[in-house]
Amino acid sequence: MRLPLRRASGLGLRASGRIGAVALIAACTTDVPAAKIGAELAADPSLSTSPVNVFSCASCHATTVGDVPAGGPIYPGADLVDSTHRPSWWGGGERRLLDAMNFCLVTMMGGTALDESDPRARELDEWLESISPDDPSPAIPFTVVLQTDDLAPLAAEADAASGRALYRNACRGCHGEPVTGEGKIGSKTSTVPTDTVDGPVCAPTDGSTPPADCVRAVTVEKIRHGRFFDIGGLMPPFSTETLSDAQIADVLAYLKLDPVP
Ligand code: HEC
Ligand code: HEC
Predict the structure, then answer these.
(1) Is 61 close to ligand 1, i.e. is its CB under 6 Å away?
(2) Which candidate, 76, 147, 178, 196, has a CA 20 to 30 Å from the CA of 33?
(3) What is the largest CA-CA distance in the chain?
């Protein structure tokens, strides 16, 4: 299937070819392949126009062709390898690749959507094409739970050692070490779980009593819903395919967020 974005870029290339041989040679000698520029854009937080953004595309997506190593990073976003030949994106919610990317650029990175005619849209598209050898490629399921479950029943079986590995692979890249926040991606990124323990939801200053499992519940809510469902902030959600409930229970055990008996 040819995407509107690819069609537009193809037309653009042919148009410049008609300028004439001299212009073409001049262009070729200085030309950095669009895919290479796209790869750089995908690793650069300043693709977003937001001065407070710290994320690049690579903060949330695997981008390396080849087998993902077992025990390697767990990203909230789908693997971008083979992404151009999928029939749909965002669990079927997006039908155009540019829209799928722009959704991330706008909602996750606080940036401005790229127009189809923007050279950066073509460069990102060429880069994605260059890391998409499989054609066709199946859509990636993305199940977001509406109501987060109370994972207390899973707590007895939860494994803090597994939770440590999961935290390192799924959370540490943004949050740094628990409690100290050492190595976090940006100064405004929360320290887990300290900022929730001391935060306005679980430590209200108006004298009201927070729910017993407040920190646990906020943590589950953030993992499952991120900034969506009117929660706010910047964190991406993790689908049930990316992190199972049992895995989240392991992370909670590692963070010592046992259910209140
Ligand atoms: C803060 C995290 C985050 C950032 C930054 C981010 N994304 Fe995403 N992206 C997601 C999540 C979450 C999804 C939805 C889950 C999924 O991929 O299926 C997603 C989905 C996508 C999809 C659809 C994948 C599919 O097969 O369904 C594409 C394509 C994509 N992002 C490209 C980009 C590009 C390009 C950038 C940089 C401009 C970017 N993303 C930045 C989190 C992010
Ligand atoms: C792509 C970066 C990213 C990843 C990956 C990520 N987070 Fe976050 N998270 C953030 C940012 C940024 C915030 C602060 C803004 C917000 O609340 O959305 C945050 C907020 C939170 C909060 C709320 C803290 C508070 O202030 O009360 C919790 C809890 C949390 N994250 C837990 C996790 C856990 C556990 C994981 C791993 C399963 C994880 N996050 C993965 C970026 C990330």
Answers:
(1) yes
(2) 76
(3) 78
